[in-house]
Each structure stands twice: as C-alpha cells, then as structure tokens.
Design goal:
The structure is a homodimer.
Chain A (H helix, E strand, L loop, with lengths): L14 H20 L3 E2 L5 E3 H4 L10 E6 L5 E8 L4 H11 L7 E10 L11 E10 L7 H15 L6 E7 H11 L4 H8 L7 H12 L3 H11 L2 E2 L3 H7 L6 H17 L7 E6 L12 E7 L9 E11 L4 E10 H10 L3 E3 L7 E3 L7 H13 L4 E3 L6 H11 L3 E4 L9 E4 L5 E3 L16 E3 L5 H9 L2
Parallel strand pairs in A: 1-5, 7-9, 14-15, 14-16
Antiparallel strand pairs in A: 2-4, 3-4, 5-6, 6-12, 7-10, 8-9, 10-11, 11-12, 13-19, 16-17, 17-18
C-alpha cells in the first residue's frame, strides 16, 4: 500500500508534540479538579435534530451512515458533535435524576466541523470546557467562579499572553433599551459585526435593522469602544448618560467579574471589560467572554463563553448555566508547528539501559525494573550494538541518561548524562534523575514575555 | 425540548463512574510509560479504502457524510476507525520519517462499530493498545516485552482475575505442515471454530476445507486441547510425535513467552499456553494471545493481539509489529453497571468549605484557595443554608470533609469528617486529609479473589 498523505484539517501530533498536549491537558485537569469540577465524557454522536437548529453551523455537521455489506449506506440519524455544549446540555437533561446541582463539570474532547481547514480551524479539534449548571436557578457568583477558574487554569500554561475580554448582555440590552432603540436584539447582532465592518457600515446596519437613529447609533458605537480593566468602567458607562435597570444590573455584574478576577490575573493572563464583545449566539443572557492570544490575533478568539439562563430545559425544569470553552487544538497546533512549544523528548523513558550482549538482556531488564519500581521510566536497548551507537540511539529519542550495568561482579553500575557527558557510579535501587528529567516536559522556544510577543506581532 | 432517551450502544458514564475509568486509564498509562511506551492519538477518521478490506467488518463501518445547507449529504470518503490497529499502521507509514524504530506506542481512544449492541459490545467503545513496531525487522524479545508490559499493567487494576491465553501461529502451522495437511491456512481457520462448534463438526470441516484425513484431524484436535502454564508444554507437544522446523521454532517462542512472564503473573493475572487459540485474522504470524476475565467468560475475549510480520508496508519498507489490545469499555461498563466497581465520590473535591452567609463567601473562598494551593481539591458551598443542609450537600456528593471557617477573630477554623462525625481544629495552611481521601478512588464491592470470583460464576 502506498504511503498515505496527510488529511487536510485533521492535525495529528508526533509523539514529542503529543507529550506537550498531554502535559497541557494534565495541567488544565489539575486546576479544574482543584476547584471541584468533575470530568465527564459524552458520546461523540448526537441525534441530528439536537445538532441542527437551522443555524449557520448546520452545513458543517458530519452525519454518520452505516456502510452495508451490499455497499449501500444507511443513515443513522446521528451526527458528530461540533462543540461540547450541545452534548453537555443533552447529558444534563438525560442524567438529571442522577446529578447533584449546581453541577460543575469539565470536558476535554474532540469535536468535528466540516469547514474549510485553515490555521487554527480544523475538521477535528479538541476543546476544553468548564461549566457550572444549576437546576431552576444559578446564583451570579458562579459567573465569577467560572471565569476565575479558567483564568487560573490558562495562567498555569506556557502560552503567549492571553486576554479575557468580558462583557455583559444585560448591560448592552439595558443600554440599548434605555437609549430607546426599537429592536434591541437586532442591534446586538449588528454591533457584533464591528470587528469585520467599518463603523460607518455598522451605523447604517443599526438604522436599517434595529431602527436606530443616527444619534442612537453613535451612542452604541461609543459604548462599544469602551475597553478598561478596572473600576473606571462604571464611570465611563455612566458618563454616556443612559439610565436603565437592566443596564445597572449588567454593569454591576461586569464590575464584579473584573473585581473577582483581580487576584488571579498576572503576567500570563489579563482580564478586561470590552464592551464591543456581544457573541452572536442568542442563548447568552448575562456575562459573555472571548479569549485572545497575544501575537496570534489572526486565530480570532481562542476561547469564549458566558451565562445562559437556559442551557437546557425539558418542559418542566430549566437548567441555567455559565461556562467557558478553550480551543486546545486552535492554540496548540499553531504553537507546535511554529516550534514555540515542543516536547523535551519523544519517549517517556528517562533512562536507556545499555545492553552488553544479547545474553545480558535479563540483567539489563532487572536494572530497568528496579528503576521502574521507583517511578523512573526506563527502556532497554533494542540490540547489543557498540555503546557509542546505543548512546546515539538514546540521543535520537531525547532520553537524557544511559545506564551501563556492571559487566563483572565486584564492579558497580554507572550512569551517563549524555548531555553533559558526566558518567558516575550509580545503584538502580537508589539513583534518581533530576526532577525535571523524570517526565517529558514542555520546551518553550519563543519566550512569552512582553518583548518577544511584540517581536511576534512584528513578524506578521 | 423533551428529555432525551439513552442511545443504545453508546454507554455514557455518570461522574463517579467516569472517575473509575479515569483512574484505570491513569494506571494503565503509568505502567506503559514506565516501560518507555509513548502515547499517541490518531484522528478518528480514515479513508474508507484503508478501513474496508472486504472482511466481515465492512458492514460495521460508520461512514462520514457532510450535511449540506440544502439538506443533501455529501460523502467524504472517510469512515470512523473500528479499532486502533488500522489507524496506527497508517500513522506509522505516514510519519515513518519522523519516528525512531523500534517504536513503542500506547493509544487509548474510542472506536466505533455499527454492530448490534449487547453486553460488552458497544457502538462506541474505548480500547487501550500497546504495540512495538520495527523497521524491516523486529527481534522476538519484543513479543515477550509486550506481553509482560500488558500483564503488569492489567495486574495493577482492581479487576476480576484475568487469564492471558497464548499460542503461536508458527507452532500450529508447523504442526499441520509436519502432519502433512494439504491446506494449512484453511485448517487454522477451521480449528478457530472450536469454541463455537462441537469437535465432530470441526473434524468434518477440516476434511472438507483443509483436506485433512480423519487421523490428521484427530491430531489437530489433540494439539488444540493442550492448555498448560509451564514447561511441560514442550513435552506435551513433542509427545504428539510431529517434527517440523517451524513447529520447533514456534514451540520455543511460546515457551519463551511463558518463561518471560513468570515473574509478573500473580493473583490477578495468569498466563498460560492454550493451543486452541488461533485468532482468525490472517496477519498474525507468530505469538497470538487472547485475554479472558474470570466470571465474565460471557463477554468472550476482553483483549487480544499478537505478532504480525507486516503491520504496515509501503512498497519499499515493511514494518513488523507485536501488540496487545485491551477492551476498556468491554470490561469496565459491565463491571460498573453491576456495581462491582464504583467511584468513591462524584466530585474531585475532598473538602466542602461551609458558608456562614453570603457576605463571608470571600473568606470561605480564601480557605478553599489555601487548600487548593497545597493540592487539596475544595469547593465552597453553593448557598449559605443551615450547616446541617450544607453537610448533607457534601454527603450527597461523597465529599468526605466539611470545613467551618472561624466565625469570629480569635476562634480557629474546624474541619469535620462527615463519615465519622469527628470535628477538629484545623488550619488550612497545614491540614491534610488522609492520602486515600485526596482523590476519588475506585471502590471494589465484589472482591476479586478466588472465592468471590467463583460466587460470580455461580450467580450467572
């Protein structure tokens, strides 16, 4: 069979790059779990009527058909999920009787969309989602919680600087209502186009679709340009002179989110109010957020989410929720392919145990087992080549240490750090590698500080 | 929207059960990595011409079609993988230039088959595979290695006793050839039916399809009834009086596998030669193995694998391999649904921090953060209910400890073990839960020792 060619839109990682992804997933999982979020996985397939809601996404759904023995195919009525929110909503409804609310869950799984592949957009891609879901009600403090947890989780990763840009749908809606704009929902949809269209065009659309006067449209634009990270937010909005109950509540909520994140933001993650963020999806009803990666604005948002008053409902009960989704493939695949992130080695082994001849394989295996028993990953050389070749074998895999079992009784074992060349006596029952060498780690080639992020931008 | 009904063949785990699966996956991964196996994940979709080889499996393939805006669907030429071997073989070919051989990999991912769902057989199911693949050649000692690693990995899990039943295709082939059976391959295929058909029927099939005489067929059956765990194997086979080079090599290999596993078998896993095991798949060329779970023989094999001289080939290079696959869903889903395995709690949190009133939420959050900073998962009560209700909230989730922050300055915090009722003074900067309470664990309700496994069988 001929050598296969890569399938466009289905990125696949080599072992060392996969080690990076695994470390990232382990780090995210650790933070989510420290905050009490339970992991779930949902099946990959959902009934088409749950996936296809007449939205733009419909055409991107992969439908499952069964290939029959007679070569015809038979529709299953199922499609692959294109995000983790639809399957989670279904999971909550289906298993509600067995769940305790508020239910905190995290989910890290692939999703599929049949869209045209491009950088950061794949046909198979992994997302990491956290959500808190209540039954009938969900207090606002969970909005702050979810945002804090995601800030903390992403702040622990060696990524370029991330910016959480937060807004509140109540604030926008209340502001538009207070302004007297006839069709508030239509206005939100038009303002959402500000990153694609010039301001003039959006003003026209606001007039055409939302019935806004030139004066009203202008005020909408003024609101949308507010971008602050601190309490001056409240003054800035109030200075626009619009009063409305909903606006006040939204403003207070947004200020609380900024406030609540103050002690978790840092060098790697910032949180700011950006009153242009609306997020098109109709189900958001309060907090909304989009996450951007500095120097990688071309990827668009690498995460997002918000509050929905009805994540799910089954006629009798409504389940409000708040959540944030992070695009793992969208960030990692470009960073890995640019060489910004790489794995320190392609194998888990910290030690290669050398092999003097095929007869001493059991002896070398015993050394390896002694190391493994103490949590040190080890492999025995595949064949008894000259030691120089065995060292190069380790080098090609990135294994930092080569172990030489004693050839004669009375002589001790030795271990060589092949990076420094240092070779020392060692006992497999007590020797430990430096903690950093124990597992494959993430190597950051392009520093993520201010300066180099600027370089990054300049290179575009 | 109405409450969704479960989808047959797509088992989905509740959070506590998912914690069991996660612990199992973590334990398997740990063992595989200690032995130098690198993790990879392959994309879920493969070109149909790689998946459909005219075998029986073809009708079980799920084909991906794109749902178009105009409601027609458009074939992608892709199907979901039904095992992890086909995608791994493709991965090796596609990325060969970037891999180091021998290449050890483990892969734990879902697979899909459109078969009729039944206990242990699902339409979406997770497999855990290990393989070692060489370029052009792969020494026999890797057969022993792969078997040992899987024995060790499964022996670390709290499952009912597992039995590795090993055979060797060279042994069978050589024996049949030495006997003078005209069509050796056909004979192997017929002997493989021994667990479905009575011996007489198999004798007839051997005559009809393999041209075996009654005497030859009888000897085939005698070989197939040999089942031993030690070196008497060699004597038993030689006593049948057939001599053949290939037979001798196969017998020596099989004896080496038994020998090599001797120090890793134990109470939870046994390894024995079972000369009836052939495994129908044509690509096996040496060692073959099937894994059975005591008391759960109705599930058939819960794992299997072997040696293939050509896992993959691209016209210029051949990649021989040896591997074993373990059915994670096939074992865990029945054990979980019978209550044999369960999770100790539904949330990662070891501690619920109580909340005196909404105003003290920041204080309670500070306690939780102090615990988290030391690796202790904690959540703050959702609302300031009476303490009795907050304790029941913890109880329903299986959270073992409730923390009461000091209400007044000068008074210390207290922590209550809600199982024993013990309540003690504690400081969030120093207090530690018992190690067993730190993470959700696996609770084995039905012991896995000899006696209770027998009970298990009797209950069927």
């Amino acid at each position: 069979m001929a050598r296969p060619t890569p399938l466009s839109g289905y990125p696949e990682l080599l072992p060392a790059a996969r080690a990076v992804e695994r470390e990232v997933i382990a780090s995210l999982s650790r933070t989510f779990e420290l905050h009490g979020f339970a992991n779930i996985e949902t099946r990959v397939a959902e009934p088409l009527d749950r996936l296809a809601k007449g939205g733009e996404i419909d055409k991107e759904i992969y439908v499952l058909r069964r290939l029959q023995a007679d070569d015809t195919a038979d529709d299953t009525g199922l499609g692959l999920h294109f995000d983790l929110t639809v399957p989670f909503a279904r999971y909550v409804l289906e298993h509600a009787g067995h769940l305790e609310f508020p239910f905190r869950r995290y989910q890290i799984q692939p999703c599929w969309r049949g869209e045209r592949p491009q950088e950061g957009r794949y046909r198979q891609f992994t997302q990491a989602d956290i959500d808190v879901v209540g039954k009938d009600e969900l207090p606002f403090h969970h909005d702050v919680e979810v945002m804090r947890v995601m800030v903390e989780a992403l702040g622990a990763l060696p990524l370029p600087r991330l910016s959480f840009q937060v807004n509140n749908r109540k604030l926008i809606q209340g502001f538009y209502r207070g302004l007297g704009i006839p069709d508030v929902t239509a206005a939100i949809r038009q303002i959402d186009k500000l990153d694609k269209l010039p301001e003039d065009a959006v003003v026209e659309l606001l007039a055409e679709h939302a019935g806004a006067s030139a004066e009203q449209a202008q005020r909408c634009l003024e609101l949308a340009t507010i971008r602050v990270a601190d309490h001056s937010l409240v003054d800035r909005v109030q200075a626009l002179g619009v009063t409305d109950d909903l606006l006040s509540r939204g403003l207070a909520e947004l200020a609380s989110v900024l406030d609540g994140c103050r002690d978790v933001v840092g060098e790697r993650v910032s949180v700011e109010a950006n009153l242009r963020i609306a997020r098109g999806l109709d189900y958001y009803t309060g907090t909304v957020v989009e996450i951007y990666m500095e120097g990688y604005e071309r990827l668009k948002a690498v995460g997002g989410g918000g509050r929905y008053d009805a994540l799910a409902e089954d006629g009798r009960t409504t389940y409000p929720g708040v959540g944030v989704s992070f695009g793992l493939s969208r960030t990692l695949v470009p960073l890995i392919s640019e060489g910004v992130l790489s794995g320190s080695r392609a194998v888990p082994s910290a030690v290669l145990v050398a092999l003097a001849d095929e007869q001493s394989r059991p002896a070398s295996e015993r050394v390896a087992d002694a190391l493994r028993a103490r949590g040190i990953a080890a492999e025995v050389a595949a064949s008894p080549q000259k030691y120089g070749r065995q060292i190069r074998y380790a080098e090609r895999r990135g294994i930092p240490f080569v172990w030489f079992p004693a050839s004669d009784p009375g002589v001790g074992d030795q271990v060589k750090d092949i990076r420094s060349g240092d070779q020392l006596d060692a006992d497999a029952a007590t020797w430990d590698p430096p903690a950093d060498d124990l597992r494959p780690g993430i190597v950051v080639t392009h520093a993520t500080d201010e300066t180099s992020s600027t370089d990054e931008r300049q290179r575009q």
